[in-house]
Amino acid sequence: MDGYIKLYRKILDNPVFQNERLLKIFIWCLLKASYKEHEQIVGLQTVLLKPGQFIYGRYKAAQELKIKPSTLNDHMNTLKRLRIIDIKPNNKFSIVTIANWALYQSKEEESDNKSDNKATANRQQADTNNKGNKGKNVYTPEFEKFYSLYPNPQDKQRSFTNWKKRLKENTAEELTVAAINYKKVVEKENRERQYIKSSANFIGQDKFYKDYLPKPVEVKAPLKMVFKEL
Q1: pTM score > 0.85 for this model?
Q2: Residue 202 lies in domain
Q3: In what order do the strands lie in the sheet with 94-98?
C-alpha cells in the first residue's frame, strides 16, 4: 500500500501513547485504513469502505502484528472503549472505523497550504473563544476526571454547569462514582451510544444520577464485651 499517514504531536497527550503495544496497534489501524471511498471484495461479498475504514479479521491481523489473537482483541476493545475506533462485526469479518479520521488525516487532494490555513484559522478561532470565555470555562480537575470517565461525554460547558449545581448536595467524589457505576451498567448491557445519556443530561436532573450514587455503608453498633472477674 503506497502513500503515508500523518501522526500528530498531540498523540503525546493521549493515554494510548503510554502503552507501547496499544500505540503499535493504533498506528497499524491508521496504516490499514482507507484514505478514500472504495469497494473491496471479501469472499463473495462486496463491501463499501469509507475513508478511515478497513476490513478487520482478528487472526490475520494477529499474524501481521505478531501478537496473540486474544491479546489483540483486548487491545482493540480498549481502543473502542476510548472511542478511538469503532468496530462493527458480522459473522465473517468486522469493519473498523477510525474515529475523527478527518482530524488525523487530511484528504490527499487538498494542498498542504489549504490544510495549514485551515489549521491556523481554527487555532485563531480557539484563541479568540478562550479569551472571550476567560473565567467561564475553567474546568476543575475533579470535573475533568468525571468527564473523562463518563461513558458518553457531551456538551462539556453544560455538563460543567450542571456539575456545579450538583456539588451543592453531593461531593465531587460521589458524582465521579456515579459516573463509574453508570458506565458499568452501560458496558454490561452493551448499550449503543444513542441509548446512553449524555453527561450534561445525566447530572442535569436528580432522577438520573442519584440512582448511581455510592450506597451508604451501614454501620452496625459495636458489640458490648462483658468481662467477669475471676
Answers
A1: no
A2: 137-212
A3: 53-56, 94-98, 85-89
